[in-house]
Amino acid sequence: MRLFIFLSFFFVYTFAIRPGPVIQASKGAVWPKPQQQEVSETYYLIRPHSFTFEAPVNIGCPSFLDDALTRYWTIIATSITSKLEETPEANFWELDDNFLGYLETLTITLLGECPNENILPELHDNENYTLTVDSEGAFLESETIWGVLRGLETFSQLIYAEQDTLMINTTKIVDFPRFPHRGFLLDTSRHFEPVRIILQMLDAMAYNKLNVFHWHITDDHSFPYKSRTYHELSDKGAYHPVSGVYEQSDVMKIIEYARVRGIRVIPEFDTPGHTRSWGVAHPELLTSCFTDNVANGELGPMDPTKDTTYDFINNLFTEIVDVFPDSYFHIGGDEVEFDCWKSNPDVSNFMKQNNFSTYEQLESYFIQHVVDILDNLSSKYLVWEEVFVNGVELPNSTVVHVWKDNGLSTLNNVIKAGKYGLYSSCWYLSVLHSGSDWDAFYKCEPGLLLHTEEEKKLLLGGEACMWGEYVNEFSVIPRVWPRASAVAERLWSDENVVDISDAQIRLEEHACRMNKRGIAAQPPNGPGMCF
Amino acid sequence: MRLFIFLSFFFVYTFAIRPGPVIQASKGAVWPKPQQQEVSETYYLIRPHSFTFEAPVNIGCPSFLDDALTRYWTIIATSITSKLEETPEANFWELDDNFLGYLETLTITLLGECPNENILPELHDNENYTLTVDSEGAFLESETIWGVLRGLETFSQLIYAEQDTLMINTTKIVDFPRFPHRGFLLDTSRHFEPVRIILQMLDAMAYNKLNVFHWHITDDHSFPYKSRTYHELSDKGAYHPVSGVYEQSDVMKIIEYARVRGIRVIPEFDTPGHTRSWGVAHPELLTSCFTDNVANGELGPMDPTKDTTYDFINNLFTEIVDVFPDSYFHIGGDEVEFDCWKSNPDVSNFMKQNNFSTYEQLESYFIQHVVDILDNLSSKYLVWEEVFVNGVELPNSTVVHVWKDNGLSTLNNVIKAGKYGLYSSCWYLSVLHSGSDWDAFYKCEPGLLLHTEEEKKLLLGGEACMWGEYVNEFSVIPRVWPRASAVAERLWSDENVVDISDAQIRLEEHACRMNKRGIAAQPPNGPGMCF
Fold first, then answer.
1. Superfamily of domain B181-516
2. Which GO terms describe its molecular function (chains A, B) (predicted)?
């Protein structure tokens, strides 16, 4: 039967040099791998011109789900490859016992309540769904619209092109994410990334069931966020006051584009370090550095000794909490360099007055103020691991973002202390070796040191991080995809899904799938071509 | 004077964290650096609407130079940045003593003979030119049209945008290449690269004064060249017989696009290894591999024992020499795996009959036949270093392409043996570390072990090599550029041009210049933004 060739999920690759692609892509395999899936050899054909989603009236709430149906209809209808084999074998299915007929409908049932039109994705949302394609037809069920979105993505991935025909195998899928926080960090400070690139990233995130866009929006080199309160921050601190900024309307567009895809947008305004760009417009926020007790003109981290620093942060963060609707805010707190603080006599005096004997205490003093500001704003927060390690008092809702080497041990300490943990130590997309570079991401297991169910619940998930030093708008998408897909599968699929050979075959298909959908993913596995 | 700020050629970068780009780009600096250049602070403005090239009638020969003038006029006219500073300082030049007026013309003089319309770029072409911008105007002189092309590129790079104005400083340039063979290798077998990508590569090569496109067109994984003689090679051996092949018309287009930019196209049809894709249509060309004296179905390198192998190669290479007009042909000869030959009893018998005691002798026997075929076709050739190391008898016109580690010593041996050497050992673009990864290319000096003028003359230059395992059409351009620019400067500029700090500043500008001209170059130096 030809289908045995098509469904080469378990193709074994030997290292002998063979012509053709080094990894033969799967057909209709789902990425990330569902928690439970049975596939059989019987199949339907799909004719886009007559295929529809059957959604009862209750699926119209919120109405943005209708847009999702249109989106996925388009993806399915355009997934017939334009790179056809020379001569299609006419109607190969006609004498095939496995052919079940034409699938005309996916019936979608929202089991839970009809949500408000303005519903936001949140931490711990239910994203579960079941998807059945059997002799009765195709059925997607979920308690929530988020689960419906995840199920639609899966349904679209089950469909594959064979010659000029779309096919889907019968299958039964019960699926849910392993972790509730599956993130992608993009740094838009080291290089400015145009809005269209961010929207493409959000598309790709949805194709990989990632659900948190961690927007590392500012850093030392530029301040591209155009604030309503302090527009001078980007007027002077962006690379360019017009071409290098995110207007309020851009931010709105990004948040909404993410929301309707079930993706949270968590902004990061890193302090007290990584703030050099703030000081172009507001040098008074930063510490003056001294050489031999004389101010040398350089500026360091934020000045923790002045009340005016906290007033400014309070004003700005009040705006940010209003602009970004997510209940979490990433307040940074990483890599504070103490040299400048050490050099400044006012800082030294301040430490004496407050009986601080270490600069970690001073850093904690600063962060404690920021944390208090956010508590007053009723916003929860994420912090980089240094904040926890340095002993800042944090409420248990805080998420500690672990990023340094030896992260598993730090993560263990975070969770032992009853805080939420988020992991990134092994998922830095800036780390390169061969150019392919996804297998180490795939093999990394964040829960290795966690044993009890309670501990495991405190590990919220992780994030693939794309720091911006060496990527611009031309290189960032192929640098990220499909490498971040490896992280996406680790965070969604069961922890026993660790077979690299199986992953290679599915990722080969998935990278090509992304290409077909307009995402400029690079090749994951070596020689090959997408069809 | 404002110009002091503009012309920050020798800006010293300190490692303190400063807002803004980590490297401040130069303005109007030339890449690769000219052999001799004096720049002064006086400048002209250029108004694209009235600027023209003044070329005496003799410049119309060949007429493709007119196309080059149009191309460069467009580049210049569109090089005003669209990312303007907010409020241009109105007419900043009006009270500036350094302002010389408006430059209306570049006068071009072809000192040598008017060449034939069909002239081809060749090894050892004269590419010298002089370019003068002084109070009398702007003047480009060259003996050859190739020198005129290089000078036009330089002229276009001297012009920079300041606010909404184009400027050019007075300067005197005497320029010529250090090496005659400055190449870029692209592997179109591991991944197929669309013709539009190759044309973009040729554009970028011209912007970097590279003059040889080494087209590694076939390899184990696919055979994308559609042969007139043996079209089944690509019908069966390409990734796809339609979407994954270069038609004859594509090849013609690429050769012509290169030619009018002064770029030679050298095809490589690698044998006897790296030929697995040939065997899909013609398995009889390859050696059958055996396990325990039984053919195991695997195929190895070409079968060196059969006359029919050489007949086939003769027929194909007769076509290739006709299709590709360059007088050189790269015949490969690298990485021949002996295991399959060793396993095959016919090969063993053949070796006994011919008194071969080593497989290197057998390889030499094969290559000797290929070399004889090319000698009969009056084509010169390049070979990978193994061919030389294994002792194949080669005429002194042969170019030995050194690529392995310890290449300087091999290169020295090549040249001591009186052969031409070409260097690539340190210029593999697939080697990655930080993502930026051009400084090691820049620091690599191929002539280190060569002392006499005679030895130095035998070193023809080098090539930056982009092997195709991990790059597709979406990632290959940012992977190559501006990293190959580092190689381009090493091969064009004086060997004393080794200052990385100076190079960083100019490369920052050059990468942005390429972006502006439509080349999706990645950032070379870390945080920054192009204007």
1. Glycosidases (3.20.20.80)
2. beta-N-acetylhexosaminidase activity
